[in-house]
Amino acid sequence: MTQPRDPGTIRHLVVVGHPRIDSFNHAIARAYREEVEAQHQQVEIDDLYARNFDPLLRRDELPVPGFKPRPDVAGSLAQIEGADMIVLIYPIWFGMPPAIIKGYVDRVLGADYSPEELKADLPNPVLRGKRLTIFSTSAATRPWLEERGQWLALKQAFDTYLTDAFGLRDCHHVHFDAIVPGLDARFVAEHLEVVRQTARERATVVRYGDLPPRLLRRPDF
Q1: What is the pLDDT of residues 165-196, one digit of tens each?
Q2: Closest to 22 measured CA to CA, from 49, 52, 55
Q3: pTM, whole model, 2 decimals?
Q4: Do the Cβ atoms of 25 and 71 come closer than 8 Å?
Q5: Distance of alpha carbon 161 from alpha carbon 94, whole angstroms
Q6: Residue 45: in which H helix or E strand, if any?
Q7: b/e for 158-171, b at 16 or more Cβ within 10 A?
Q8: Whether 142 contacts 151, CB under 8 Å
């Protein structure tokens, strides 16, 4: 039987891709952090907009022999290397994650990872075995997104594809729809309780390993 890990050594990297600090996306990050820290695990928040992260993949960042990451990417890779759980928090704009999140995938998650390695099903050595949690939001309702095929496309591109391509251990995605200005305080509180419940579950999974489905809340997907 696998022994539980010391919670004090478990680290979560929370990557936020929303420009407004007063947004619901940032409220998700704060709630997740508070709950995970209550489980005595460590959390580091990477606010991409706050540090002016450049989403553009430059020519010298393409995977070639002798690849050397730029300083900002090297710092992000160090964060990932020390993390057990990677958490992405972003809004859906025009049916897609914001450019800053796609740029994080291109420049950081895909750093020095070639198409040849992808085709050969070789896992990304930096990401292999790590767990991924995604919190996304949209102003549109989920049925509206589903009717237009955007929901399935997002799931395949950012959940299934990233998990399989990079060799991640698993992915858990929670989506909040109808997130618009002037949300009712009770509505916000209910959603943030879902975030806290998810944080507790993910913290438990990292500490104890895979748990039977009956011990976990039904996932969104």
Answers
A1: 899 999 999 999 999 988 899 999 999 999 99
A2: 49
A3: 0.92
A4: no
A5: 20
A6: strand 42-47
A7: bbeebbebbbbbeb
A8: yes
105-121 confidence digits (pLDDT tens): 999 999 999 888 888 88
CA–CA dist 63, 44 (Å, integer): 27
- pLDDT tens per residue across all 221 residues of the chain: 467 899 989 999 999 999 999 999 999 999 999 999 999 999 999 999 999 999 999 999 999 888 999 999 999 999 999 999 999 999 999 888 999 999 999 999 999 998 888 888 888 889 999 999 999 999 999 889 888 888 888 888 888 989 998 999 999 999 999 999 888 999 999 999 999 999 999 999 999 986 544 444 444 44
Query: Residue 134 in contact with residue 88, Cβ under 8 Å?
Result: yes
Letter for the amino acid at 56? L
Round to whole Å and give the CA distance between 159 and 1: 30
Residue count of the chain, please give it.
Answer: 221
Q: Which domains does the chain have, with CATH numbers?
A: 7-215 (3.40.50.360)
**What is the DSSP track for 73-134?**
HHHHHHHHHT-SEEEEEEE-BTTB--HHHHHHIIIIITTT--HHHHHTTPPPTTTTT-EEEE
Token pair of 182, please?
Answer: 């002037």
